[in-house]
Amino acid sequence: MIHEIGIYLNGVLLTNRTYYNSTTLKTDRDLICALISAVEVFYKTTFSQELEYLKGKHHILVYSKKIIKNIDTNESFHVVAYAIVNNRNSSLESYVGNKIRPKLEELLNTFEINYGKYIVEPLNKIPGFSREIDEIFAESWELQSEI
């Protein structure tokens, strides 16, 4: 089950959707994104490779990164899409590699096409992107929206 899906830039949350109400995930989202960003940079710097997911006892944090260029400013940004999912799947590598990561990559592509030029603005101010998150992920997994 997917608990949350979001997009962040430089450790700052741009947009997210929460699908499952869990007391274990009641933490400041900006703090979570900053920590994830720091861990990802540490891992890449230390081991010279990309980190694909973090596995905990109950949850897995899966993420995918894309470099998006703002066509107005010509600046490049490392944008990260993440998903927090239950750690109940016996074939973890297949689940992450074949189901979750392709959806996160699709989410980043959709983000780039529709909102790439607004990359410096918080996406929560841009109407409609939460619906696009739902459309990309809803076809394959149980989602319990809090809205």
Query: What is the total number of structural domains?
Result: 1
Ends distance: 17 Å
Helical element count?
Answer: 3
Overall pLDDT score: 80
Helix content: 25-40%
- Gyration radius, in Å: 15 Å
Characteristics of this structure?
alpha+beta
Task: Characterise this structure.
This protein is an alpha+beta fold and 147 residues long. The chain has a single domain (2-138), classed as Beta-Lactamase (2-Layer Sandwich). It contains 3 helices and 5 strands. The chain has helices spanning 29-47, 92-115, 129-138, and strands spanning 2-9, 12-18, 53-55, 59-69, 76-86. A 5-stranded antiparallel beta sheet has the order 2-1-5-4-3, with helices on both faces. The longest helix has 24 residues, at 92-115. The two termini are 17 Å apart. The model has no long low-confidence stretch (mean pLDDT 80).
Secondary structure: elements and pairs:
Layout: E1 2-9, E2 12-18, H1 29-47, E3 53-55, E4 59-69, E5 76-86, H2 92-115, H3 129-138
Antiparallel strand pairs: 1-2, 1-5, 3-4, 4-5
Helix pairs in contact: 2-3
